Amino acid sequence: MRLTPARLLLAEQSSYYLHGEDEDAIFESAEALLAAGVPDAVRIRVDINELATVEQESRNQGLFGPSICYALVRNAQSANPKQSEHLLKLARTVSEGNRLIICAPGIDWKKALHKKMKSEQLIAECEFSKPDEAAFARWLEAEIKKSGLNVAPDALLWMSDRLCGMRLAARQMIERLGWYDDGEGAEIGLDTVSELLGERAPGALEEWCHAVAMRKPFALTLVRRLLHEQQVAEVQMISWLGTRMQQILMYRWFQSRNDRNALQAARVFGDARRKVGEESRVWKGSELALAVKRIIDAEKLVKGATIEDRPVVIERLTLDLVERERLGA
């Protein structure tokens, strides 16, 4: 059964197959499908090698009778033939009340799994084509208006061009613009937007991000230079470092799944393309997750969740990421 993205949430099917080139839209819709429905349903997200978890949760009888299970499979495009057959069997036999959402961004149209999923009448199939620039620009403008920000037209156009199709990155950018504005309502121009997005900055800022990503003590010297000598805004430093560490984390994730182009899949751009591979080898997977969490916590403090000076927050964050013992504490 073929559905359009606009009709997806209106449908009440047991199995969904989401595919196409717009990866962010696929996962955004998948999360919406996962969240909709019975409030107390068990909701799980799994990779293609964890299908047994879906079977276990969906067949769980529980102490007070059977429970409802909604499951999201994140990377069906990576399935081998055996996993493909297993996934097809699950999709055809979803129990009443349960829900299975299968995501396959960028799947090869010649792949057997793709052909079989599309031919199944019991599976709601929806394709998310390459993002339309005009549609993305309208979506971005609506999101910015919803946030209450006043972004200059040329800055909005520039953001739309740079972030086209990357909805998650756009939402993160809007959030950081909100922290920068701090409720003042002043017009945010192109200079500010380009600095926060990582296009214009002192050369030492990229050098600092790389030093932190490589866990070099020299990062502590650079952070003081940026804060005290060059007067770089703390929110800009958080934006750059947060983007870099998320890129490393996503690069490692796609690389572990043997993606043909992990850099492209992780949306790594600019100078980072030459450095992320080397930087990723410095970190364990568990450390990367802790590092991203530590940056998110620092973002909240920079936003105003503490009376502590913002430069101190950035300096301590740098120290936490560079020294292995502090990150694990």
From TrEMBL:
Signal peptide: none annotated. Keywords: DNA replication, DNA-directed DNA polymerase, Nucleotidyltransferase, Transferase. GO terms for biological process: DNA-templated DNA replication. Its EC number is 2.7.7.7. It catalyses: DNA(n) + a 2'-deoxyribonucleoside 5'-triphosphate = DNA(n+1) + diphosphate. GO terms for molecular function: DNA binding; DNA-directed DNA polymerase activity. One of its GO terms (cellular component) is DNA polymerase III complex. Gene3D superfamilies: 1.10.8.60, 1.20.272.10. PANTHER family: DNA POLYMERASE III SUBUNIT DELTA (PTHR34388). Belongs to the DNA polymerase HolA subunit family. This is DNA-directed DNA polymerase.
